[in-house]
Amino acid sequence: MKSKERLAVSCASFALMVVASQALAASGGKGEENGILIILFFAFGALIIVFQFAPGVLLFVSMIKGLFGNEKEAVAAKESGDNS
User: Fold this and answer.
1) What is the pLDDT of residues 52-80, one digit of tens each?
2) 6-25 as b/e, with b when 16 or more CB fall inside 10 Å?
3) In angstroms, rounded to a whole number, what is the distance separating the alpha carbons of residues 67 and 69?
4) DSSP code string of 4-64
5) Of 39 and 3, more confident
């Protein structure tokens, strides 16, 4: 008898959760009272991307210079380092 009661309670609570989650999902996002917070959030994300982009470009440029740079400069730097 207890297993039938537990099953009934489980089914009822599951049905209640399904109905309640659909109701909560349907009501979200309709208000415009937090518009400035959304704009600030996206602006903060854009600032993070911009401030990470600049060092990335500098590292990429220096990597390309290292790969395709002058061999004479590398030899001169190596020789000056060996004499010390």
Assistant:
1) 999 999 999 999 998 888 777 667 777 77
2) eeeeeeeeeeeeeeeeeeee
3) 6
4) HHHHHHHHHHHHHHHHHHHHHHHHTT---TTHHHHHHHHHHHHHHHHHHHHHHHHHHHHHH
5) 39
